């Protein structure tokens, strides 16, 4: 992997991208999957991010910053698209360099491989859900995050 240093927290978006087949559509989906990974699979063993109550439930600014840092290291590509409603949607994809890094990382023993395994668990349970259902599932299991939400269902 050369001289590329990957912070422990950055393993979360990398592991999720890997488990999702290399792509995650939308910032909200990335946030919710990372939150579920943190809360439901990793728990206290690996507290990667702190989340605050936001428009669509739990949100971590550090997660976005780490993902942008992965882009600067050429491990992740972030594509911006205009939505029909005039907003910007962010899509995330592993680059070839990112895929190489992930294959090396996921073979490591200990808590690194644990993060990759946990990401697969989350993706098998929540990865195929439409975004609306994913948000609703987060609210059902973690209702405290509905407090500041603009999302109604």
Can you put this structure into words, describing what you see?
- This protein is α+β, with helices and mostly antiparallel strands and 153 residues long.
- The model has no long low-confidence stretch (mean pLDDT 89).
- It is globular and about 40 Å long.
- The longest helix is centred in the N-terminal third of the chain and has 16 residues, at 27-42.
- The protein contains 6 helices and 5 strands; from the N terminus they run αβαββαββααα.
- The strands form 2 sheets. Strands 1-5-4 form a 3-stranded antiparallel beta sheet. A two-stranded antiparallel sheet has the order 2-3.
- 33% of the residues are buried.
- It has a single domain, classed as Arc Repressor Mutant, subunit A (Orthogonal Bundle), CATH 1.10.10.
- The chain has helices spanning 11-19, 27-42, 61-72, 96-106, 111-126, 131-141, and strands spanning 23-25, 52-54, 57-59, 76-82, 88-94.
């Amino acid at each position: 992997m050369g001289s590329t240093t990957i912070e422990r927290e950055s393993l979360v978006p990398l592991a999720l991208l890997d488990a999702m087949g290399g792509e995650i559509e939308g910032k909200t989906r990335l946030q919710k999957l990372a939150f579920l990974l943190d809360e439901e699979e990793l728990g206290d063993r690996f507290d990667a991010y702190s989340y605050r109550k936001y428009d669509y439930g739990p949100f971590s600014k550090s997660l976005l910053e780490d993902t942008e840092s992965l882009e600067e290291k050429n491990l992740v590509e972030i594509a911006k698209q205009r939505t029909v409603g005039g907003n910007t949607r962010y899509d995330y994809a592993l680059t070839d360099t990112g895929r190489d890094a992930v294959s090396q990382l996921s073979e490591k023993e200990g808590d690194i491989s644990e993060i990759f395994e946990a990401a697969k668990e989350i993706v098998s349970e929540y990865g195929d859900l439409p975004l609306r259902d994913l948000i609703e599932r987060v609210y059902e299991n973690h209702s405290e995050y509905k407090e500041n939400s603009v999302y109604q269902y």
